[in-house]
């Protein structure tokens, strides 16, 4: 079983590293992880779930704002983007944050098509991240179930 | 949070600091909450600005600090910032993902204590308690100030009143502040400027030297930041100086009496008396009158009062009494002053001036006393010289000997005048300095001035100007210079006993010569005197020179 645990842990470590290397996550995620302790074992999961809920909400708002038949309220879109940017930066969702920065510029430029495209990208991106982090959590679960301890991954 | 927890938290500040966190972004709010918990603060969260406002209004002492996001749907973050700051006077920290400086500026303008960028790091949150401390300190300072103003008392009273209302929690901080303030209050040291000293003298004069009490003087002076103690110590110094003057005047009188017989000799021999000690008698006797007169003054009024009276009388006498003034005190004392006043600054001159002032009455006395040997020879010489002069005010004569006297002792002695430290210490020194500075201007008593006049300007002009300046100086002298005069009088008398004797003879002759007319002669004498300093060893040579010059003087 130890070998299995070790293997799982290795798998977990590699996975995390790949996420960082692919730019899905950044240092803020590490900080987030460091805040999790024995008192709050589900802290990261809790925060991330909050984040993804916000994502859904905000993207929906933006889609609605952009989908308006009349004039598009770009300020509204911009506000939502701004918020999304804040959230994503707080959790360490690097790619999402990058997209939000672009999105914001497009909103200021009132580039409708650009905004629409960007929104689509944001939508894809956060869903991708969500899936990846889900896998990570599953791995953690497996390790714990296997009797092991989720390793602290040192990103350097 | 229970009461116990609250008290504990407060004692362990910043642990347990109560923070209200407001952010419509749930993700950020959750993270913030966790971070604050990690810093051991007590956290209350809400995603609505309105809720936050209500929460803080509910109990104004409920929170120590508010952290609020900028972008919120129901209320502008800056507005919330203003309201919270105004109503509850809590420190508010702004939070935003906007890194644009204009937002930061807006936050500052609306009264934010700090502006944090998202994502917030725990390191930044660990230091936010400083804003609470700073704000509370500021509140204390404000209350101290308002207390001080409302009570209308000194800062000490205000601080003491505030002390009573301290919170037990903040006791240490308040004590520190109060101690610092008290320390600051003690710091300022009163420096007796010339103006202040003048006011002091005017007040003393008004009250009378015998009735001078610090409290009355303080009231009359009406100077800010001056305490009764300052005045008391200054008055003590003043009285000591006065006492010294009168004592020295007495000494001078005694010496004059002892040496009175020399006067005639020295005066007759003129230059010959250069090496004699006669000048002292002459001067001293004259000075005796002066001293006596001087002594009268203190008894009746302060020196401050004396001055104006004497000065007013001086011109009169100068113009009316003809040559008598010559016999007046000024010259011998002047010479006395200048001779060895190594430590005598021009204040000594001032004392000469005072003796000059006294001169009018003195002169009258001397004249009436005609028995005084000193006067007669001088009178003779004067009368001889009177052919040359008529209308010239005696004042010129005064100036002449003064200048000559100074010149006699050379530049070095003149210069030493300014090094003198009077009994009044800083005040007199200040006067001395100011007088020194005024040399080039009018109303200067400094001997240097007159000497300079003689040297620099044409003979006639110089003497005249010098005299005018003397007169003007007398008239214009303020109370401050009285001190100088007093001091110089004292010192003059001290010095006069010694070297002056020799000089006096020469000085006497010079003094008796009619001023304006003898400008040339005076200049000649001056040169002789100057040379004499250098030819000190060649007494015979000098003596002969002086004899020649004196004979020249005597035979107009």
Describe the protein.
Chain A: InterPro entries: AHP1-5/YPD1, HPT_dom_sf, Sig_transdc_His_kin_Hpt_dom. The complex is a heterodimer of chains A (156) and B (556). Chain A has 156 residues and is an all-alpha fold. Chain A contains six helices and no strands. Chain A has helices at 2-21, 27-35, 43-66, 74-91, 94-108, 112-145. The mean pLDDT of chain A is 88. Chain B has a five-stranded parallel β-sheet with strand order 2-1-3-4-5, with helices on both faces. Mean pLDDT of chain B is 62; it is low at 152-184, 266-383, 388-480 and 504-508. Chain B has 556 residues and is mainly alpha-helical. The A-B interface holds A 28, 31-32, 35, 40, 43, 46-47, 50-51, 53-54, 79, 82-83, 85-87, 89-92 and B 24-28, 30-31, 34-35, 38, 71, 96-98, 118-122.
Low-pLDDT residue spans of chain B: 152-184, 266-383, 388-480, 504-508
Oligomer: heterodimer
Number of strands of chain B: 5
CATH class of chain A: Mainly Alpha
The DSSP helix count of chain B reads: 27
Would you tell me which CATH topology of chain A applies?
Four Helix Bundle (Hemerythrin (Met), subunit A)
- Could you tell me how far the N terminus lies from the C terminus of chain A, measured between alpha carbons in angstroms? 29 Å
Q: How many strand units of chain A?
A: 0
Q: Helix amount of chain A, in percent?
A: over 70%
Percentage of residues in helical conformation of chain B: 55-70%
Numbering strands along the chain, what is their spatial order in the largest sheet of chain B?
Answer: 2-1-3-4-5
Q: Could you list the spans of chain A in which at least 5 consecutive residues all have pLDDT below 50?
A: none
The share of residues in extended strands of chain A comes to under 5%
Whole-number average pLDDT of chain A? Answer: 88
């Amino acid at each position: 079983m130890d070998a299995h645990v070790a293997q799982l842990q290795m798998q977990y470590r590699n996975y995390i590293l790949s996420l960082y290397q692919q730019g899905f996550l950044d240092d803020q995620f590490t900080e987030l992880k460091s805040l999790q302790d024995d008192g709050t074992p589900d802290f990261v999961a809790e925060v991330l779930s909050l984040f993804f809920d916000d994502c859904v909400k905000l993207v929906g708002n933006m889609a609605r704002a952009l989908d308006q038949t009349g004039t598009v309220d770009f300020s509204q879109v911009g506000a939502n983007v701004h918020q999304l940017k804040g959230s994503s930066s707080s959790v360490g969702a690097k790619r999402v944050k990058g997209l939000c920065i672009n999105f914001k510029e497009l909103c200021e430029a009132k580039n409708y098509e650009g905004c629409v495209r960007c929104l689509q990208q944001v939508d894809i991106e956060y869903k991708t991240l969500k899936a990846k982090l889900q896998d990570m959590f599953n791995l953690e679960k497996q390790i714990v179930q296997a009797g092991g301890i989720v390793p602290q991954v040192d990103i350097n | 949070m229970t009461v116990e927890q609250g008290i504990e938290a407060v004692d362990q500040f910043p642990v347990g600091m109560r923070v209200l966190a407001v952010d419509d972004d749930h993700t950020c709010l959750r993270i913030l909450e966790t971070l604050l918990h990690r810093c051991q603060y007590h956290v209350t969260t809400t995603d609505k600005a309105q809720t936050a406002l209500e929460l803080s209004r509910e109990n104004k002492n409920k929170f120590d600090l508010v952290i609020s996001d900028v972008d919120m749907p129901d209320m502008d973050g800056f507005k919330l910032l203003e309201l919270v700051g105004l109503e509850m006077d809590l420190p508010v920290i702004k939070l935003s993902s906007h890194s644009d400086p204009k937002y930061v500026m807006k936050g500052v303008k609306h009264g934010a204590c700090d502006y944090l960028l998202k994502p917030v790091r725990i390191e930044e949150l660990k230091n936010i308690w400083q804003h609470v401390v700073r704000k509370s300190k500021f509140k204390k300072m404000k209350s101290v100030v308002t207390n001080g103003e409302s009570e209308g008392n000194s800062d000490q009273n205000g601080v003491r009143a505030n002390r009573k209302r301290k919170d037990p929690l903040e006791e240490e901080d308040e004590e520190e502040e109060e101690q610092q303030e008290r320390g600051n209050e003690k710091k300022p040291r009163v420096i007796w400027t010339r103006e202040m000293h003048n006011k002091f003298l005017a007040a003393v004069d008004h009250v009378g030297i015998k009735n001078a009490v610090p409290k009355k003087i303080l009231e009359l002076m009406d100077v800010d930041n001056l305490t009764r103690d300052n005045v008391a110590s200054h008055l003590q110094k003043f009285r000591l100086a006065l006492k010294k003057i009168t004592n020295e005047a007495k000494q001078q009188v005694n010496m004059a009496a002892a040496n009175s017989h020399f006067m005639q000799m020295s005066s007759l021999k003129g230059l010959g008396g250069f090496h004699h000690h006669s000048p002292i008698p002459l001067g001293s006797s004259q000075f005796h009158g002066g001293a006596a007169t001087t002594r009268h003054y203190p008894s009746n009024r302060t020196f401050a009062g004396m001055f104006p009276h004497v000065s007013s009388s001086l011109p009169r006498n100068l113009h009316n009494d003809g040559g008598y003034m010559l016999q007046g005190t000024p010259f011998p004392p002047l010479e006395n002053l200048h001779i060895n006043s190594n430590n005598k600054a021009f204040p000594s001159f001032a004392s000469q001036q005072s003796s000059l002032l006294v001169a009018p009455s003195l002169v009258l006395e001397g004249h009436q006393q005609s028995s005084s040997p000193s006067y007669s020879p001088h009178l003779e010489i004067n009368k001889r010289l009177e052919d040359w002069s008529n209308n010239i005010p005696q004042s010129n004569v005064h100036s002449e000997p003064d200048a000559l006297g100074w010149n006699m002792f050379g530049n070095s002695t003149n210069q030493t005048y300014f090094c003198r430290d009077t009994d009044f210490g800083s005040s007199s020194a200040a006067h001395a300095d100011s007088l020194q500075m005024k040399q080039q201007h009018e109303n200067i008593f400094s001997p240097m001035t007159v000497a300079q006049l003689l040297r620099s300007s044409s003979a006639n002009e110089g003497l005249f100007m010098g005299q005018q300046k003397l007169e003007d100086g007398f008239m214009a002298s303020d109370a401050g210079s009285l001190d100088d005069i007093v001091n110089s009088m004292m010192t003059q008398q001290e010095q006069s006993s010694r070297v002056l004797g020799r000089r006096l003879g020469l000085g006497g002759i010079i003094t008796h010569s009619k001023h304006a007319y003898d400008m040339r002669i005076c200049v000649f004498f001056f040169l002789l005197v100057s040379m004499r300093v250098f030819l000190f060893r060649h007494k015979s040579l000098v003596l002969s020179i002086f004899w020649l010059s004196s004979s020249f003087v005597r035979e107009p």
